Structure formats: C-alpha cells, structure tokens
Amino acid sequence: MAQAGSSQPERKRPRLSPEDEKPFVDHPTLYFDDGNVILTAGSTLFCVHRSLLSKHSAVLRDLFEESHARFRGLLHLEMEETSEEVEALVNVIYDGLRVDVQKLSVETFPSLANILRMATKYKVARPCDDILARIRAEWPATLVQHDAKVREVRDRLSRIYGNANRPPGIQQPAQGVPPPEPMPPEEDAIVHPASVISLLRECGYHDKDLFFPLFYALSCTTWQFGGPSLGLNLAPLSSADVERLVVGTERLRTAHISFAVVTPEFAVSPTHPPHFCILGATQMWSTMLPLLLPPARRRSRPIEDWCDMIPLATNGHMQYHVCALCARSIASKVEAIRQTLWASLPAYFELS
C-alpha cells in the first residue's frame, strides 16, 4: 500500500464505472493482450485487433468508426449476439477465413450455423461460400450428383448390413416384394433437412437450387402428415414452408403414381414379332409396379425408386422374354421419368 503523500503512488487498475462492474470474463483464447478493441457479448469480453476485423468485414469497420464507447481504455463495441456466436465469427477471421469443420453432422451443425449466421450478417463472404458448398455437396441440385450421393450412402450401409440395402429391383425381381425399409445407423447423426432450410431462410437465401433438394430430402423422411413426431421434425420450419412441404410432397407422389400405373407404349423391335417384346415388356412393367408403390407405412423416395427399376429392365429382360434392345428402351423411359420428376421438384414445392 502506498504511503499518504508519496510522490509515487502504487499503480492500480482504473476504477470501473458501475456499468463496468458486472462480472465480466475474458475469453480464454480470444482476449489478446495487444488488442485495441473490446467486443462484449453478454458477460464475455473479446480483446481483438481492429485492423484485422475491419479488413474482412465492412460492417464491423463501420461500427468501429461510429462507436465512441471506451472500456478498459480501449474502443468498445457491445455486440447483440451471444458469446458463442461472436466467438464463431472472431475465430473464423483469425483462422484465415477457413471453416475447419469438414463434415456436416448434428455435432458440427451448431458451429457451422453460428458461423453462417454471423458471416452473413457481417458480410464475410468466404466462410458463407464454404458452408453453402458443404450444404450443396450434401444435397446436390443435379440428378447425377444426387445419384452419386445415394450410391455413396448405400455402399456404406451395405458394408454394415450386407445385401439388406441392395436396390429392391435387383434383390427380388421375380417376387416383386419390396424389402424392409433399411434403417441407417447414422440416421440420427445426419442433420435434419428442416433445420438446414430454417437456417438458410434466417440468413436470407432464396436460391431454388439450394432449397429444392432439401425439400425433396425432407419429403423422403415423411410418409404421412400428422402426429407428434412429425411436428417435432418440422418444428424449425415456418408455416409457409410447412405448407410448401405438404403441397409439394403430394404433387410429387401424385406424379410418381401417375407415371407408375400407366403402362407406357413400347417401341417394337425390328428383330422380333411385334407381340413378343410388347407382352414381355408389359409383364416387366407390372412387376415394377409394387416396387414403385410401396405400402403407405414405408417411406416414399420416387427418384431412388425409379432408379432401382433400371437394373431390373437391363438385367432382368431375359426372364420376361424381352430383347436387349427393347430392355434398353424401357430403361430409357424409366430414366426419362426420373429426369422429369427431378426437373419438376422446384415447381412442386413452389420454389420457382
């Protein structure tokens, strides 16, 4: 303790104003001793470098220029967000705008969501682009990429379950009985599409190519509407998006059923009598019908269900006495139906 009248009083931390006396806590890793601006989020303090944050965020740069508040002798900005959200933004800026999380899962989604919200609000473009790219990779907008994603999932499941997850048209072409609905062990670890849709809406995105694969994936997880479990799954959605999902799912399933129940016209092969392949092709299509129209309790995946019919047409044609040329014609018709359904998804879900 310094003596009264001493010319060199003991140095003390500046007395805090009543507002400063709240139980503030310095962030353990983002409170830099040489920082020159303090961000407050709740009771957490971030001492950071103004030049770095200003360089990557014009919004923060403007806020710094407008602020005249001081805290601990430094420029002070009181943030509206939680400490977790501010931490996400500051971390990604100090990490060179890289998003280190590679896999989109229920464990990583909260962190990625915080980064996307904050990077969108404060206009830090690169993290937004990285996260949107991850979402697009998980729910692709092109049918080719969607099919590749489905094959990847099925291959992973087949290593766990064996043949239980093989496409139904290959597994039981003669009996026409669909196998039990596979239950992926990782299903609970996959981010629910409704949560992603809600996040994108919150951040102001409207790109239909970003949304329609998510709505299709959501429709595949919903085989009937109503009940508490469905309400829980759709809780993140706005009422407008719930309506969009219900209407779009019914439109998709109606179109799917319409294609399935009408036997298409088959071209006559020049190498066989007309009745020969036409009769076999009709029988083959009839075999496909129960595989395309599963029981109501089973999930409906029209795009995947039609895809599973292509191997049945190309590999099972001899069983139905259909020549290879006509079998390829049937497979082409099936693929054309898939292309039509996929291209119609934005309109079905009113995302155009």
UniProtKB/TrEMBL annotation:
Ranges annotated as spanning the membrane: none
BTB domain boundaries: 35-96
Classification via PROSITE patterns: BTB
Disordered as annotated region, ranges: 1-22, 163-182
Matching Pfam families: BTB (PF00651)
Protein name (database record): BTB domain-containing protein
Organism: Trametes pubescens
